[in-house]
Structure formats: C-alpha cells, structure tokens
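@channel anyone free to eyeball this complex?
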Amino acid sequence: MPHPFDPAGLAKDIAAAVSGTLQQDVTAMSGFSRTQLQAMSKQAAWIAEAAANNEITKAQRDFFLQDLARMALTFVKVIKGLSLIAVEKAWNAAVRVIWGAIETVIGKALPLPF
Amino acid sequence: MDGQVRVKYRPEMLARLLSVLAAFSLALLLLGCAIRLAPDYDQSIVDGLEAANEEAMVLFAATANGAAPGTFGEREAAYNALIGKLDSLRVTAQARPDPASFAPAGGMTADIATLESPTPQVLSDTVQPIVFMRDNDRAGMLTAAVVQGIKQSFEIHIARALIYEKALRR
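replying in thread with the prediction:
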C-alpha cells in the first residue's frame, strides 16, 4: 500500500501555490512602483520648471518641495505595506495546501486556523 | 479460550496508524501558523476614497484655468466637504486594528518592527495639497500653474491609498 502522505508531492504543490500568488503580487507591485516613480519624477520636473519660469511663488515652491519629500517617504511605507500583504498571501497559500494534504490522509475536513 | 481479545498484527495497519499520527502532529505544529500581516479589507474606505477622488477631480476641473480673486466663496463648501471627507477616512483607517494588536508577545508578527497600515499617513499627505489649494484660493493666488501642481500631487497620493486598500481584498 503506498504511503498516503507524500512529502515530495506536497513540497511541489506548496512551491506551485506560493510562486503563483507571489508572481501575481510582484507583477502588480512592480507596475505600481514604476507608475509612482514616473509621477514623482514628473512632479519634480514640474516644480523646477514652474519655479524657473516664475509661475509659482517661493512659498508655493517650498510647499511643493515639502510635498515631494513626504511623497518619497510614504512611497516606501506603501511598498512595505503591499509586500506584507504579498507575504501573508504566500504563507497562507502554503498552509492551505498542507491542510488539504492532511485532510486527505485523515479523511475528514479540518478547520483552517484563520 | 482465556477470554482475551487478540488482534492480529498487520504491518499495513501500523503504517496507516503512523501516517495518521504524523498528519496529526503536523496539524498541531501548524496550528496557529497562518499569519495576518495587514488589516481587514473595508469596502466603506474604498468607496469613500473613490468618492473623494471624484469630488477632487470636479474641483480641479472647475479651477483648471485658475480662480479669479474674490470668487473663493463659490468653492469654499466644496473644499470643506473634500477636506472633511479625507480626514474622516484617515480617522476610520487609523481606528482599524492592525494585526500587531493581536500578535502574541514574542510571536512571529511581533518580531516584525511594525505592521501599521500606510493608509492614515497617505491620507494625511493627501489632504495637505487640498488645504494648501484652499488657502491659496482664499488669498486670491490660485493660478492655473498651482492647480496643475496640486492636481498632480493629489493623484500620486490618492492612487497609493486606493491601490493599498484594494490590495487588502484577499
């Protein structure tokens, strides 16, 4: 009788589940980062041009520069937040696969721990 | 007969028993290993962000060519409504429990420096260009160039809040 718990097969299934969810999230995060960095570069160029052409006052220029500095800091926080969501999804996808394998062996459904 | 029940030993029964024990051990090991690293999705925050974004775009369209001095009163209510909405969303996002609140001391999630959602900070950044725009409008200094700069800034900030909040739907 073959052993009902197949660690090699399980490892393969976990890898497939994790890489599937990570690939999707990393692609989305990379697109978001690119768009945001382009928009911040455009804003920096606009501030320089508007200030050089005297289209904005010194006080207005200072506000836009401070705003740009805040943008850079918060961008890192948002990327960190999105990364945590990606890690959470990957980890929990792995747990689901393991749960499924255990249920197959014991022949009954188990409640997921989340 | 001595009255004892004798069970005939069969190797496959032992293998089956060990396998079930291994599965149960693994289950116990994994119990509680599922993790929560971000807050729950909140549809009301996403709806509020989309509504605020729409209101802001209407305001930018109305002032795209700048605003004539003395006309601030025509837009004051729109500014206040938008600023109030963004601040209210920030408070709602701040009041939402972070997963760290539920992490056991010394547990896996507690080891990660902070699991704070970025949304309150993003919304704090988002409201500032609108407050600046309102103050410039009130002072009669809202030119087309300033509106352009504010609009570009607002779009960067609000996109972050929308992307993050929508990513929480998992």
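from a first look: Chain B touches chain A through 48 residues (CB under 8 Å).
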